[in-house]
Amino acid sequence: MGEGELLFLLQGLKWTVVLAAVSFLCGTVTGLAIALLRTSGYRAVERTTAGYIALFQGTPLLMQLFVVYYALALYGLKIDAWIAVAIGFTLHASAYLGEIWRGSIEAVPRGQVEAAKALSLHYFWRMKDIVLPQALRISLPATIGFLVQLIKGTSLAAFVGFTELTRAGTMVSNQIFKPLLVFGIVGMMYFAICWPLSFFGSRLESRFAAALR
Amino acid sequence: MNYKFDFTPVIDGLPTLLLGCLGTLWLALSGMALAIVIGIGGVILRDSRIKLLRWLVIGFVELIRNTPFLVQIYFIFFALPLAGVRLDPTPTAIIALGVNGGAYAIEIIRGGVQSINKGQVEAGLALGLHKLSVFRFIVLKPALRAVFPSLASQFVLLTLTTSIASAVSAYELTSVAKRIESDSFRSFEVYGVVTLMYLVMSWIVMNILNFISSRYISYPAK
Question: Between B66, B166, B199, which is nearest A55 by CB?
Answer without folding.
Answer: B199
